[in-house]
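I am writing to request your help with a piece of structural work I have in hand. Here, with my thanks, is the record as I have it:
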Amino acid sequence: MPIRPAPAPEWAPGTLVVLVGPPAAGKSTWADAYPSTWTVSLDTYRTLCADTEADQSATTDAVRLQDVILDARLARGLVTLVDSTATDAHVRRALLARAHYWRRPASAILFTTSLDECLARNSARARHVPESVIRRKHDQTPSAAELRDEGFDSVTTWSAP
């Protein structure tokens, strides 16, 4: 069954929307329901830098590309979806700082997909994320209350059907 996102809130112009959840939680599929120009994705930028999204050594370069595009979109007041796990607090802090710098609202979409569902989806993918990474990222996923406490203007929880 394909993943369908909940209806989008009426995001203000320039809103930075951060998708938060472990690999295989449905973030990229959820983002695919919106215009492709809205989405910044470390997987895409790793692929541009290294010819494969799996090459984690390209992450530093991918983050630099992401930051340039985030600044360009936020400066223009465009809604921007950040499609990465964002389970690490320091990653979310950096994204929030960027939104605050540009005086833009920041929303989080929290994916609460069960660990078993993430593992099942991962096994059906062409490129598998190591199970240990999925388990660690699932354990690191913050709660909605934590995201609000960090400074997100709104938090929407999304669960897989």
